[in-house]
Design a protein that fits this description.
Bound molecules: S-adenosyl-L-homocysteine, 3,4-dihydroxybenzoic acid, magnesium ion
CATH class: Alpha Beta
Order of helices and strands: HHHEHEHEHEHEHEE
Number of domains: 1
CATH topology: Rossmann fold
Strand order of the largest sheet: 3-2-1-4-5-7-6
Structural class: alpha/beta
CATH superfamily: Vaccinia Virus protein VP39
Number of helices: 8
Distance between the termini: 48 Å
Helix content: 40-55%
Length: 225
Amino acid sequence: MEKTPPQERWVAVEQYIATHVIPPDPVLEAARDANLSAGLPSIDVTAAEGKLLHLLARLVGARRILEIGTLGGYSTIWLARALPTDGRLITLELEPKHAEIARANLERAGVAHLVEIRVGRALDLLGELDRQPDPFDLVFIDADKSNGPSYLAWAVRHARPGGVIVVDNVVRDGYIVEDGSKDPDITGTRRLFEMLAAEPRLTATALQTVGSKGYDGFAIALVTG
Ligand code: SAH
Ligand code: DHB
Ligand code: MG
């Protein structure tokens, strides 16, 4: 086999995987195109990662999903498609413009009736959500990385036993191993890993990912009690 540079090989394999297990999907492709045209950063999950979120939601039989960090709703569509007809997804987004693009994408995808986009700082919005008693079956944390520990703490309090918590961007080109880092994204994620280790209600792992988004990772935690 010809020796291609790693990044090129990762992208080719990502495409290979998608070709086999992710059928062409005009709705998802339209959402990605709309995000690009609107000038949103291209930091949505990949198709293979979106499908992983979708599968996890189905595996836990999710009826209530919380997403922190909507962007243009690409991951939201993958998650919403895992819900039953009476399911509910709440997604939190700081930027009104992102929320507006996401709303249009969710409508085009035919899942808008399942999704509530709340606009504001996630920490404030979570404070408001504190008052609602129904637990979540899946929480996907994908907003500002420095607040990851607070989001995880909230998720632990509001996820049902048997539920799952997924955190994006936990590897960051490997910088996560730098214990002297001053980067708040890195220190936030390192604190999040300490919480994963210490929290008795969680049992967790993390997967390193490579592909069109470079080298990063997902943490996945089961809520045990
Ligand atoms: N989950 C999306 C990508 C999210 S990108 C997908 O995979 O398709 C991260 C998003 O978090 C951005 O839209 C950003 O505006 C939002 N964000 C950043 N800080 C935030 C905060 N404090 N509260 C809520 N959202 C925030
Ligand atoms: C960034 C944020 C993300 O959620 C992501 O998946 C990739 C990059 C970022 O802020 O750089
Ligand atoms: Mg992300």
